[in-house]
Predict the structure.
Amino acid sequence: MDKVSYALGMSIGHQLQQMNATELNVDDFAQAVKDVFAGKAALSDAEAQTAVQTFFEQKAEEQAKDAKSKGADFLAENGKKEGVVTLPSGLQYQVLKEGNGKKPSATDQVECHYEGTLINGQVFDSSYQRGETATFGLNQVIAGWTEGLQLMQEGAKYRFFIPYTLGYGERGAGQSIPPFATLIFDVELIKVK
């Protein structure tokens, strides 16, 4: 049972790390487990639930503030770089290669190759890695793509720097795009359909 007990502790420890609860007092945590098994917990279930909920709400607020600040700082510095254009919406772009084909409208279907990264360089999505292009309606994607792709002609490749307000917003998307994330996309417009 010692090995199983340790393994369960590891599992819970990993879960707490994933939840970003790394500054917990491990001694208090272990004592709470002992108290629950002994039937003498120091908090009621409602008090415990409130404490945990408050902790994670505060953690989320801190992370949101940090992500907003880092994104704003990144875009402010990036906008000063040569070749980077900042639009009134806040979308920034850089032309990597001009095209000479058709320009899409906001309701067109487009075929693209792309790679999306966070400002820390972490790739969260890539049609290049999948080895196949993606086709979608420009009115079915994030606002930064809808606006940015309309600037391009077939054959062009642009880099978009997308503030969270034109990306996945306050919620993020899935496990790989956190709330308030500023995004970077390299997008190649293959074809307007």
Notes: The chain has a mean pLDDT of 94. Helices lie at 2-18, 26-38, 45-78, 127-130, 143-149.
